[in-house]
Design goal:
Rossmann fold; 7 strands; 43% helix; globular; binds flavin mononucleotide
Length: 207
């Protein structure tokens, strides 16, 4: 078994989402002895710019044109990154909420790898995800708690986006672990993390 951890927070030691994701990963590894973990840190990985040759390579593929050598090289970089998703049985995302959505570096990674014939395909039947059979765990950290003041249907572009991306690439099993109120002081933060760590360990027991 192989797990890919996509680290979406630059806060590392202080990050609530990474903290809870680590609890999940430790519990999951204990259940799957001999399993391997690949960490993809979106803040230190050299993510390919998605313009110029990469963008032209995408449209060449969509219109059935032969790619130039420079476009092929750009596409190889995209494929190599996407291969890390294909290799995984379980994909864990640690995701901070930023402006009710996800951090731009995580969106950059997703925009780079989510390509036709790489992570999905489509035909007259619609979208066909190519990551079917995998499981996703999204640890979603938030400074506040969504609720009456910030109803999730209007403000949650974090969980909603990650769930939609999972559907797009064919992952039906998308589990969200929430860590809210991380900015309500050390006590609320500790309490919230502890509850989320417990939930993550319970989830790991079933995956
Ligand atoms: C640029 C930025 C934007 C943020 N926007 C929101 C927000 O819209 N809603 C929210 O509840 N918290 C927001 N926060 C707080 C973070 O979600 C919170 O600190 C969370 O713990 C971050 O996850 P991490 O600890 O894994 O880095 C924001 C933080 C930053 C740095």
């Amino acid at each position: 078994m192989h797990l890919l951890h996509v680290e979406g927070s630059p806060r590392k030691q202080r990050s609530a989402s990474i903290d809870v994701a680590q609890s999940f990963i430790e519990a999951w590894k204990a259940r799957h002895l001999g399993s391997t973990v690949d960490t993809l840190d979106v803040w230190t990985t050299d993510l390919p710019a998605f313009d110029g040759d990469a963008l032209d390579a995408k449209y060449a593929g969509l219109t059935g044109q032969t790619r130039t050598p420079a476009q092929e090289r750009a596409w190889d970089g995209i494929r190599a990154l996407a291969e890390r998703f294909h290799r995984a049985d379980v994909i864990v995302f640690s995701v901070p909420m930023w402006n009710f959505g996800i951090p731009y570096r995580l969106k950059h990674l997703i925009d780079a790898v989510s390509q036709k014939d790489v992570l999905f395909s489509f035909d007259e039947r619609g979208l066909i995800g190519l990551l079917g059979g995998r499981k996703a765990v999204v640890v979603a950290a938030r400074g506040v708690a969504l609720g009456p003041d910030y109803p999730a249907q209007d403000f949650d572009f974090q969980g909603a986006y990650m769930r939609t991306w999972c559907k797009m690439v064919g992952i039906d099993a998308c589990h969200i672990v929430l860590v809210e109120k991380t900015l309500f002081g050390p006590e609320a933060d500790a309490e919230s993390r502890a509850a989320a760590r417990d939930a993550a360990v319970v989830l790991a027991a079933g995956l």
